[in-house]
Amino acid sequence: MVDSFTNEPFKGNPAGVCLLEEPLDDALMQSIASEINLSETAFVLRSDDHFSIRYFSPMMEIPLCGHATLASAKVLFERDSDLNAIDFKTQSGTLLKAARNGEKVALAFPNYGIVDREVPKELLHAIGIDAVLNTGYNHENLELMIEIKDSQKLRKLTPDFSAMKAAVHDISGVVVTAKSSDPAYDFESRYFWPWSGGDEDPVTGATHTFLTAYWAEKLKKRKLKAYQCSARTGILDVEVLDDEHISITGDAVVVVRGELMV
User: Fold this and answer.
1) Burial, 5: exposed, middle or buried (Cβ in 10 Å; 0-12, 13-18, 19+)?
2) In CATH terms, is domain 2-109+249-254 a member of 1.25.40.390?
3) What is the pLDDT averaged over residues 17-25?
4) Fewer CB in a 10 Å sphere around the end CB: N or C, the chain?
């Protein structure tokens, strides 16, 4: 078990990392993820020139998970001091590059965008939002984005998760974001996903595959400091590399090691 996007145990976002010696069938990986019962568990298998990686929540397979990728890279780098770069390939064929960056890990992700999409009033009410600056939708991750004005209000949101699930049915989650009022950070966010995982994800790399370019354009800067203001909190250094790629850099702490007897 690894706490990602933090240098302190029991902060950031915990992920399970299972290093496989041979492929496992989907049903067994789903059972293991349900047994571990973290927001995501990554299953990593070495191939000739890359590591295959798949992500499962306790409920379903997830196409992409940033914090579990960071956790997997941290484990592999700690196991092999001569390893400085890793190519991960997801189930969909997406190639993710991880590089050792001192004690941190730098991840290259696709630079995703958003398209315009209105958010139902019932969903806004369930989250506790009465005014929005912008809304959008990311097709790759099936996620809604809602920008609000006040980061302090963002930190105080107390959503009704049952009402959220009833308000919309074709998404995997909602990220609410705001420009930070703290000079240490550029923007803040929280990610709610009662449709496909837990109620709130502590720190979410996947949402930053589109939040990075979104805020880079708004703030007119390529390098940004992101703060996910969940109860556990998390800090991400993000950068737009080019039109197709962004980078997410963060720390991680291994908190549990063990062997799964299956």
Assistant:
1) buried
2) no
3) 97
4) C
